[in-house]
């Protein structure tokens, strides 16, 4: 049996690939556990500097595997327990100091939206589409949707998706701020990889900490955020990488500000 989520680490980039294409990459109980375990694995791995989240097949993720839940005799308590497991993985990735880009190639439904928004930067194919469908089957948002979706597009637009049987296309998702970029289908994988390489070519730790500060900051008061910012920038400033980059920036700024003798009278 193939793994429900494929995981590789190559040249500092961890790639997590949803791999249940025949079920539109919907999460069953086992996949939820693997998601949580891989989230801890890649965020704890010092060799990982950036993360790509993508999927096999025509869809990105249809959320939870409702068919499995309906036919397996699962109880409400089991669904709650599994939601907690998946939420652990979401929280671990979203609060990590490693930047994440999601490559979204097709349909994203229900909890798949929350999994997608675990990423700091979302690139979507022109063929991507986004829909809630929770209330249609008598369920309520999970997998971070009630928090991450309004944070991305605002409360009113989030409610439009959650309270209406409405799907939006990639162009609308870009306009709303649900995704950061829309590209041709055959350019999606390369663009996601390019973004990860951009982070790694720069101060990747600083990019990751910036993402973490924004994510965690949404959940705390201003005083706690200011304390975290002060600690984080001080720790960053003390690193060799930052010292080198700050020195180069200062030298460039001094050079740009230096007056020239051109045009002066002698």
TrEMBL record:
**Which parts pass through the membrane?**
none
Mind telling me which PROSITE patterns this protein's record contains? ENOYL_COA_HYDRATASE
The cross-references to InterPro entries, in alphabetical order and at most eight, read: ClpP/crotonase-like_dom_sf, Enoyl-CoA_hyd/isom_CS, Enoyl-CoA_hydra/iso
SUPFAM superfamilies registered for this protein in UniProt: ClpP/crotonase
Q: Which domain of life is it from?
A: Bacteria
- CDD domains of this UniProt entry? crotonase-like
Pfam families associated with the record = ECH_1
Question: Which family does the record claim for this protein?
Answer: Belongs to the enoyl-CoA hydratase/isomerase family.
Q: Which PANTHER family match?
A: ENOYL-COA HYDRATASE, MITOCHONDRIAL, ENOYL-COA HYDRATASE-RELATED
Name of this chain's protein: Enoyl-CoA hydratase/isomerase family protein
Task: Give the organism, scientific name.
Answer: Microbacterium aquimaris
């Amino acid at each position: 049996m193939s793994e429900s989520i494929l995981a590789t680490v190559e040249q500092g980039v961890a790639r997590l690939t949803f791999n249940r294409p025949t079920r539109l990459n919907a999460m069953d109980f086992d996949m939820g556990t693997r998601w949580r375990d891989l989230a801890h694995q890649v965020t704890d791995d010092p060799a990982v500097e950036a993360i790509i989240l993508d999927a096999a097949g025509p869809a990105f993720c249809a959320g939870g595997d409702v068919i499995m839940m309906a036919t397996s005799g699962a109880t409400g308590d089991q669904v709650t327990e599994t939601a907690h497991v998946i939420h652990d993985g979401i929280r671990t990735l979203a609060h990590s100091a490693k930047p994440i880009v999601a490559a979204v190639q097709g349909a994203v439904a229900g909890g798949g939206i929350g999994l997608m928004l675990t990423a700091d930067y979302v690139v979507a194919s022109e063929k991507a589409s986004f829909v809630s469908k929770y209330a249609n089957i008598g369920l309520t948002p999970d997998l971070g949707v009630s928090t991450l979706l309004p944070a991305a597009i605002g409360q009113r637009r989030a409610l439009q998706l959650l309270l209406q049987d409405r799907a939006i296309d990639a162009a609308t998702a870009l306009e709303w701020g649900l995704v950061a970029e829309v590209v041709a289908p055959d350019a999606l994988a390369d663009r996601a990889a390019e973004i990860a390489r951009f982070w790694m070519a720069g101060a990747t730790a600083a990019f990751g900490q910036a993402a973490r500060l924004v994510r965690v900051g949404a959940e705390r008061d201003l005083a706690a955020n200011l304390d975290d910012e002060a600690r984080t920038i001080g720790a960053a400033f003390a690193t060799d990488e930052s010292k080198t980059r700050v020195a180069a920036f200062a030298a460039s700024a001094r050079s740009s500000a230096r007056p020239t003798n051109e045009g002066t009278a002698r």
